[in-house]
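ENTRY TYPE: paired fold submission
RECORD: A
CONTENT: sequence, then structure tokens
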Amino acid sequence: MQFASIRIITDDLDGMVAFYERVTGTTARRPAPVFAEVDTGGAVLALASPATVAMLGTAAPTPRANGSVLVEFLVEDVDAAFERLRGVLDDVVLPPATMPWGNRSTLFRDPDGNIVNLFSRPTAP
């Protein structure tokens, strides 16, 4: 078994694709008008409209309803990434800070309210 992706269902696919392209500095693949993949070389973040899960009926995921999952990206320099994005972030949850376990992180919300964590691991002493 191979991990393929995490998929976020959104009712603003174009807006979310543009946001994550800006965050990651990559261009999303758009194999269909209702679906996109942001591939950063590690895991894939899939973004899709509700049409991709409509066959699930009332069991389908609901856009803008995530309350338990963070989207995380390992970056080389958290502070530089935050400065690059500062002007386009509407909801900064945590400005760059060093966590008690040594990671450097900044957290913010994407346009659908999902928390995004950009982090770097501590360098060896």
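RECORD: B
CONTENT: sequence, then structure tokens
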Amino acid sequence: MPIGVFARRSGLTSSALRFYADSGLLPPARVDPVTGYRSYAAAQLTRATLLRQLREIAMPLAAAEAALDAGTEEATRLLDEHVAQVAGDAAAVLRKARVIRRALGADAPGLPIATLKGPVLADAVEQILTATAHEPGMPVLAGLRVEVGPEAIGLTATDRYRLSTRTLVPPEPPPREWAGTLDGDDLRAAVTEVRRGARVRLEAVPHGVRLRMPGREDRHCRLLAEDFPDHRLMLGSLGEATTRATVPKNLLLRALEEHPGEHVVLCVDGHGVSVRPVDGEHPGVPLPATVTGEPLRVRFAMTTLHPAVSTALGPDVMLDLRGDDRPVTIRSADRGDLTTLAMPVTPDRSPRPRRGTP
């Protein structure tokens, strides 16, 4: 195929292909002796795609060439070695950046927002961050919304198909109201240190929030500038549940984990809850449950339902259902401070974001 076609199919530019040809990493299958036009074989697409991916993670040319020419085991070792090097470099940059921030006076006391117990905050952040996603052009979906009120702190995240929210009550009332969306990756990186802190003080600083822990190094989380989806509008437009089921969390999780398909159907009726395949040819896995309301069959993507159930608190989960095309509310049967909404899938469509999300 001509170089332009090969460039489109491999994701490389024509100029990049010429460079890789000249460097010997990806020579064309044929060069016209008269015109000099370069042609590539379809069999070269795999190597070209791998080369592009290796360069996207900043692997040097020599290492990329070695990985491409090695067997699977050696190539994997080279890849892991490169990733470890990048991670180490990033950690070193972060340490140096903190030193620079102090030198610039950026570590001056910020505006106190609230104080929380470290393990409690770490658990809540990890639970809520399961509902984030990295999507091109929508960085806010990778963030965690923090809303500080007079008596409690709300944490919210959404990937459009799930929305998780949890309320934390600090030992002391927050000194002021505050709201912002924090970078989810910064929070993930800080969770280990936060968990080890008996108390964590949140301070508002320019462009972010500082997590200050006595006896431990401060951590900084950036603020995202994009508007967070209007989750309050979504929650307010849900409507009343038509069916409620309370089911043992561990049994439901086990049934989901053993289910072979990418989609699963929850059948809820007076006999309980059953986890069934989409084709309906098999009876599925019956689960004991307390059910009120009308019978329902609701289909979910496994990647939406399983994390929503797994992060629920307590031994039993409560499912509030509103129909086969409306969000289901999933929360603990006895601890309601963590709530997750999960969008169902209709047979001919993917999960649909509801009003109030992007």
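NOTES ON RECORD B: The radius of gyration is 25 Å. The first strand starts at residue 30 and ends at 31.
STATUS: closed
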